[in-house]
Amino acid sequence: MAAVPALDTARVIQVPQPYLLFLGHAQETTFMKTALGLRDWAHNLCIGEYRCDSTKVSIGLPYLDPASAYRAGARSLVIGVASIGGAIDERWIDYLVRALEAGLDIVSGAHSRLSSSPILKNTADRLGRALIDIRVPPAGIPVATGRKRSGKRLLTVGTDCALGKKYTALSLQRQFQARGIDADFRATGQTGILISGAGIPIDAVVSDFVAGAAEMLSPDAAEDHWDVIEGQGSVFHPSYAGVSLGLLHGSQPDVIVLCHEAGRERIVGLESYRTPSLPEAIDLTERLARLTNPKVRCAGVSLNTSRLPEPEARQLLREVGVSLNLPVADPMRPGHELDRLVDACLA
After folding, report:
1. What is the mean pLDDT of residues 211-236?
2. How far is residue 112 from each of residues 51, 106, 210, 266, measured CA to CA in Å?
3. What does the longest C-alpha to C-alpha distance in the chain come to?
4. How many Å apart are CA 164 and CA 182, to the nearest integer?
5. Which of 10, 73, 80, 102 has the greatest number of CB atoms lying within 10 Å of its CB?
6. Is the pLDDT of residue 11 over 50?
């Protein structure tokens, strides 16, 4: 079979740093994955936040207008909020123009290109500023071969979107490294790419090449090396199951970690669809993954308990762990639960 090409890091977009994070007009944090991810995992790169006048939600960073952020050292404004469908919201344009006029480049992970806005393109051209689109996959992605690759792989999967797959992957990779394990975080979304500096925006890849992109992202490696791969979407999501399945087959995970948010019973944005039970999600994901790795196993569950107080969260982790007979941890709450999950991943 054909060899799997390695990720060409020379093609990774270079983003001017530090960042001013733009929150748009969001009224809740559900659609702020990029801003929250950068705040939590690349805090040293974030100068402050900037938002529309009607926006009351904050992610806890200092509020700075673009001119003040530039004087404080920021060199690009990152659109940290997603709109439905991934478009550049027309209500943002005036705010983005102010950032260009203040000397900042604009960085977007949206599906729509920044240059598709004549106002932004003309302003950037006039001022010599850059419009940087992260959601642009590299050229030459191959069709997947299905060839078994050396090294070990962990993929985070979910019962829905936006519930912690990226945070779980980042946390587990750092836990592996803390134990002396050679491990890389493999980013598959715009926020992960901004955090790690490399990756492939998997949901921007043409469907026939998604599995090939996953193979390209996680090539042959030493037998004791782990690639911890950021999951996308959910095989249970009516809108995004396709990209999730391609990523599952192309990554050929040895281990999956199922991610879920405590209390979430409906698919976000599609409330007529229920989220699956945890046993159902584990069973179907393992069966689908066996197409390219018959030995795949679920090491445990990453349970997002961010909405719960500490004692209630710890109690829930224990109860769910007993019911599943698997390690269950919140990667943002270090402790013996997370230690058990890491042990199970590496077993």
Report:
1. 96
2. 20, 13, 19, 28
3. 62
4. 23
5. 80
6. no
Q: pLDDT per residue over 141-191, tens digit each?
A: 999 999 999 999 999 999 999 999 999 999 999 999 999 999 999 999 988
Distance CA 41, CA 39 (A): 6
What rounded mean pLDDT belongs to the chain?
A: 93
Measured in degrees and rounded to the nearest 5, phi and psi for residue 343 equal -55, -45
State the virtual CA torsion across 232, 236, 241, 245 in degrees, nearest 10: 70
Q: 319 is written with which tokens? A: 């109860």
Residues 6+ apart with CB under 8 A from 187: 193, 195, 196, 198, 199, 200, 230
Distances, alpha carbon 17 to alpha carbons 69, 101, 149, in Å = 12, 17, 35
* pLDDT confidence band for 7 (50 / 70 / 90): low
pLDDT in tens, 43-88: 999 999 999 988 888 999 999 999 999 999 999 999 999 866 667 8
Q: What angle do CA 228, 142, 16 make, to 5 degrees?
A: 60
Q: Residues 330, 336, 342, 345: is their CA dihedral positive or negative?
A: negative
The rounded distance, in Å, linking the Cα atoms of 105 and 69 is 12
Distance from C-alpha of 245 to C-alpha of 237, rounded to nearest angstrom: 11
Distance CA 129, CA 99 (A): 10
Domains of the chain: 12-133 (3.40.50.720), 152-346 (3.40.50.300)
Distance CA 231, CA 97 (A): 33
Model confidence at 112, pLDDT cuts 50, 70, 90, reads confident
Tell me, what DSSP letter sits at residue 228? E
3-state secondary structure of 45: helix
| DSSP 3-state of 213 | helix
Peptide bond into 334 cis (omega under 30): no
Q: Can you give the pLDDT at residue 86? A: 67
